[in-house]
Specification:
Blueprint (H helix, E strand, L loop, with lengths): L2 H4 L19 E9 L6 H7 L5 H11 L15 H13 E9 L6 E5 L2 E2 L9
Antiparallel strand pairs: 1-2, 2-3, 3-4
GO biological process, one term: rRNA (guanine-N7)-methylation
Family: Belongs to the TRM112 family.
Organism: Coemansia reversa (strain ATCC 12441 / NRRL 1564)
Length: about 120
C-alpha cells in the first residue's frame, strides 16, 4: 500500500469513540519497501490539493521518511520537493503491519501490501 492511499483512508467504525481522530490512521509494526516508480511531475502537482499535507507529514515522520515541512509556493518549479513527494507517496510501500484508529483503537491489518478495511457486522 502506497502512502498516497493511506492519506485517503479513515476509520469507518460506527461507534468510534472520537470521530475527530479517525484520520490519519496510525501505522503499527510496519514493513516498508521502496519500489522505484517513474516520476510524473504533472500528476504530483495535480495531487497536491487532494493530499492532507499535515497528515502526510505526521505519517512520514513516524515512518522515518523525510519530506519538506511545507509545500513551496511554486511546487512545479521545485525539483527537490517533487522528488521527495514522489518518493514518499509513490515509491514507499507498506507491505505488512497494521493501521490503528486513534479514535476507537480499531486495527486494520495490512497483508502483502493490501489493507483490510472490512468491518465486522456490529461495527458497521
Amino acid at each position: 500500500m502506497r502512502l498516497i492511499t493511506h492519506n485517503m483512508l479513515k476509520c469507518h467504525v460506527k461507534n468510534c469513540k472520537n470521530p475527530d481522530k479517525q484520520f490519519p490512521l496510525q501505522f503499527k509494526d510496519v514493513k516498508l519497501e521502496q519500489i522505484e516508480a517513474e516520476r510524473n511531475d504533472e500528476f504530483l502537482v495535480r495531487m497536491l490539493p487532494r493530499l492532507d499535507w499535515s497528515a502526510l507529514l505526521k505519517t512520514t515522520k513516524e515512518l522515518g521518511i523525510v519530506i519538506p515541512e511545507k509545500v513551496p509556493a511554486n511546487p512545479a518549479d521545485d525539483d527537490e520537493f517533487l522528488q521527495a513527494l514522489h518518493t514518499a507517496i509513490l515509491e514507499m510501500h507498506v507491505k505488512e503491519g497494521s493501521m490503528i484508529c486513534n479514535g476507537c483503537g480499531h486495527e486494520y491489518k495490512i497483508t502483502k501490501g493490501i489493507p483490510n478495511m472490512l468491518l465486522a457486522e456490529h461495527e458497521i
